[in-house]
Amino acid sequence: MLIRMTISLLAICALGFSERSPVFASSPPTQADHVLLFVLEGVGNDAIQNGTMPVLHKLAQEGAVTWNAQSVSPPFTVPAMASLLTGLPVRKHRVNQEWETYDFSRSFLRSPTLFDYLDLAGGIDTSLFIMDERFYQLARPEIYVDTQTCGKAKPQCNPATQVEYIRDYLKKVTSAGGYNFRIFKIPGLLVAHLPEPADVARKRGWDSRQYQQALESVDTAIADVMAIYRDYGVLDKTMVMVAGLKGPDAPQASNGKMGDSRPSPVPWLAWGVNVKPGYTIPGHVRIMDVGATVLEALGLETYTEWESRALTEIFQKRPERRTTGNETFELQSSTIFNR
Fold first, then answer.
1. Mean pLDDT of 52-68
2. Going by DSSP bridges, is the β-strand pair 238-246/266-272 parallel, antiparallel, or unpaired?
3. Residue (of 61, 57, 110, 120) closest to 86 by Cα position
4. How far apart are CA 29 and CA 26, in angstroms?
5. What span, in angstroms and rounded, lies between the C-alpha atoms of 211 and 216?
6. I need a labelling partner for 236 at 20 to 30 A (CA). Which of 142, 203, 206, 258 fits?
7. Which residue has the higher pLDDT, 140 or 45?
8. pLDDT for 281-290, tens place per residue?
9. Which residues contact 91 (CB under 8 A, 6 or more apart)?
10. What DSSP state is assigned to residue 250?
11. Alpha carbons 315 and 92: distance in angstroms, whole number
12. Of the given ranges (40-44, 70-74, 321-325), which has the lowest mean pLDDT?
C-alpha cells in the first residue's frame, strides 16, 4: 500500500500540482478544447476526502466539486451509464435492470447519446474506453466514436491496462494515417471507465486491503492519463470531469426494483481550464447532468428532450458558442414554407 501511495504522490508532483494554489488560478479562463471524463464505480466520498485517493483529493480541492450527486435509483450499473450518456432518466431511455445481463438479441440503446449530440452540434469526435462488456449495448458503432473494450472477460484488464490502451490509442491517432482508427487527432471527448474498486469489493469485501489497493490504482491511473495529456501539450486546454456511477454501498440495491429507493450520494467534480477553483457546487446534481455540462464546456448547444442540466455555475466564464447550427431546424429557411 505504501508503494502505491508513493506512486500517487509522485504522480501529483509530476503533474505540477501546487500545494498552495490551483494550477489554473494564475491563468485567465479560456475555452476548453477537450474534455476528459472519468467514470468511476465503487468510489465513495470518504475515499477522496480522507486522502486515500490523493490525486482526486487534489482535483477536488482545486476545482469544482459536489459530494451529493445522485445516480439512478437504485444504482444498477448499465442503467446508470445509460443515463449518463443519454441525459435521460431510466423511464425515458428504457435501459432497465434487465440490461444488467448482456443479451445479443437486444441490440443497441435506441436513445441518442452524448456522442451523437457532440457530432451533430459541432462535429466533435469522441473516444470511449470501457471495462464492462455490457456497455457495448450503449455505444452504437458510429464513424465519430472510437470504442475500445478491456472488460471483465480479460483477467489482465485493470486501471493500468486502461492507461496503456489510452496511451497507445493517442499515439496512433496522432500519427500519420491513424492506424485504422476513425479519428486522427486527440478527440474532443475521451471517456475512461474505471470500475475496479466495485469489482474488487464484490469479491474481497468493502473493508478489504484489496479494495484499498483498487482505489489507489484508479487514482494513479487518473494521474497517468492526465500526464499523457500534458505530454501532448493539451492538458492546459482540457477540462477534467470525474463522475461516480455508483457508490460503495451500491450492491445493497441489487434486490430492489428500479425506483424503489434513493441511492447514496456519489462524487462529481470538474477541474482544469475555465473551472472555478475551490468551488463547491450548490443545488441538486445528477449524473444525467454530465452530458449537458460537457456540451456547455465545449461551447456547443443542442435542443433535445434531455432532462440533463448544464452545470453552468462551475465555469469562470460562459463558454463561447461553437455550434454549427445543425442542431436546429428553422422553418422559415425551408423553401416549403417560403413559396
1. 96
2. antiparallel
3. 110
4. 9
5. 9
6. 142
7. 45
8. 998 899 999 9
9. none
10. G
11. 29
12. 321-325
Q: Mean pLDDT over all residues of the chain?
A: 82
Listing DSSP states for 83-108 in one string gives HHHHS--HHHH---GGGGS--GGG--
Closest CA to 302 of 139, 114, 80: 114
Segment among 97-106, 183-192, 238-247, 284-293 with least mean pLDDT:
97-106
Which residues lie below 8 Å from residue 268, measured CB to CB, with a gap of 6+? 65, 66, 69, 241, 242, 243, 244, 281, 285, 287, 290
> Which tens digits make up the pLDDT trace of 25-45?
445 678 899 999 999 999 999
More confident residue, 172 or 74: 172
CA dist list (Å): 297 to 207, 274, 301: 37, 8, 10
Q: What length is written for the chain?
A: 339
Helix pair angle (77-86, 289-297), 10° resolution: 30
Q: Which amino acid is at 15?
A: L
Q: Domains of the chain (ranges plus CATH)? A: 2-17+31-337 (3.40.720.10)
Identify whether the C-beta of residue 244 lies closer than 8 Å to the C-beta of residue 40: yes
In one letter, which amino acid is 269? L
Cα 241 to chain center, whole Å?
A: 6
CA 265 remoteness from chain centre:
17
3-state secondary structure (DSSP) of residue 318 = coil
Q: Tell me the backbone φ, ψ of residue 325, rounded to 5 degrees.
A: 90, -5
